[in-house]
Amino acid sequence: LVGAALGLSAIVAASVVVAWPRRREVVERGRARRIPSLLVAALVLVASRQVEVPGVEPVGYWPRWMMVAGLIAFDLALVRAMPRPAAAGWLRRAGLWLAATSGWAGLVAAGLWLTWYHRPLERFKAVVPGKIYISAMPTARGLEIAHRRHHFKTIINLFPEDTPDRSPRLPDEQRFAREHGIRFLCNTSGEAHADAFLDQTLALARDPDAWPILIHCHACQDRTPAWVGIYRFVVEGRPLVQVMQEIERHRGYRPKASVTLLYNRVLEPRAPRRYASDPTAALLRRCAAGTHDPFDDVKPAPAGAGANPAPPARVSRPPETSDRGPSLTLGRRSLEYHQTLADPSLHESAPPP
User: Fold this and answer.
1) Fewest CB within a 10 Å sphere: which of 53, 133, 259, 272?
2) Tens digit of pLDDT for each residue in 199-234?
3) Which residues have C-beta within 8 Å of that of residue 353, sequence separation ≥ 6?
């Protein structure tokens, strides 16, 4: 990336030096082709990328489109600034178009590869640099590159892989963990073990011998952000409003409705004093008032029972047919945000009316 930036800067600087003696001619030609207006539009649109639209969800969606529109305006300015070739035969014109198309395709391919190499795991992010990282379900190649950079000692898969929704990438992940001596912990669909599994993951997150840890589900949109919120509140002691705002920034939407039920259930027994005094916790309780939590119907696991501690994950158990409660988040929405949608003030991260 640094080399590409330096090379591009050198090209721009050389072009400016060459064109400097003819700067007036260049400016006049640009005005005749209406290039300045496109450049101004590009500057305004790109600058708008940093501005959020108050009260409009998903968070960051429209600012990203402003960025895209700004880049398109800048590209159009570059196209208009291109020198127009002298009259030539069809063979030469076809050659120029072929060369331009090939160059464009090469740049796009190189950009896609460079982007993937820079972030080989989807939605990869450091929760605590050097200690805890999160991502979506890793590919074998992506995991190899990420491990080479971060040297993971533990991988925690929050998705219950003993269900029909099992990821086809799971065998590669398990094989990679075995070959590299990485401890692998996988969730199961047995909701009676959910609390034990959660406590086990939090214990590993506190254990220096387990660091660095890679924690993931399938998409890093529901279970993993919810787990990060629990870690922030229980282990780091952050206010719950910051937890909810971090999840909202990560997902682009408010936290999934089931997170309300989850946090009401798991945070109080693990941090009772702070949970009782946290104003956002009171809002979550108000949001869920009168809503039945399916997890309450689940019988607790026998004493001493725990989560699946090591690979391979249990994948032979048929899916349960009962109405299971949530583990880290529900697979379906059991609670809609009808109250917060009707009254945004109930959500701490919502803008004031």
Assistant:
1) 272
2) 999 999 999 999 999 999 999 999 999 999 999 999
3) 344, 345
Angstrom distance (rounded) from CA 150 to CA 142? 12
Amino acid, res. 225: P
Cα–Cα distance, 51 to 61 (Å, whole number)? 11
Burial per residue of 196-212, b for 16 or more beta-carbon CB atoms within 10 angstroms, e otherwise: bbbbbbbebbeeeebbb
CB-side neighbour CA atoms (13 Å) of 201: 31
pLDDT of 270 > 70? The answer is yes
Mean pLDDT of 318-326: 38
- Distance, in Å, from the CA atom of 182 to the CA atom of 143, rounded to the nearest integer, reads 12
Look at strands 132-135 and 183-186 and give their pairing. Answer: unpaired
Q: Which of 53-62's residues contact partners 24+ apart within 8 Å by CB, and which partners?
A: 54/351, 55/344, 55/350, 55/351, 57/252, 57/253, 57/254, 58/251, 58/252, 58/253, 59/248, 59/249, 59/252, 59/253, 60/249, 60/252, 61/252
pLDDT of residue 157: 98
Residue 299: DSSP 8-state: P
For residue 43, give Cα distances in angstroms to 63, 81, 87, 104.
Answer: 14, 17, 34, 23
Which two structure tokens, joined as six digits, stand for 65?
A: 């489109």
Beta bridge partners of 132: 128, 213
Strand order in the sheet with 132-135: 125-128, 132-135, 213-216, 154-157, 183-186
- Which letter does DSSP use for residue 128 in this model? E
- DSSP assignment letter at 315: -
Q: pLDDT digits over 63-79, tens only? A: 889 999 999 999 899 88
Using one digit for the tens of pLDDT, what is the confidence trace for 95-110? 888 988 898 899 889 9
Question: Could you give the CA distance from residue 20 to residue 14 in angstroms, rounded to a whole number?
Answer: 10
Number of H helices, E strands in the chain: 14, 5
Residues 189-198 have pLDDT tens digits of 877 789 999 9
Q: What is the DSSP letter of 291?
A: -
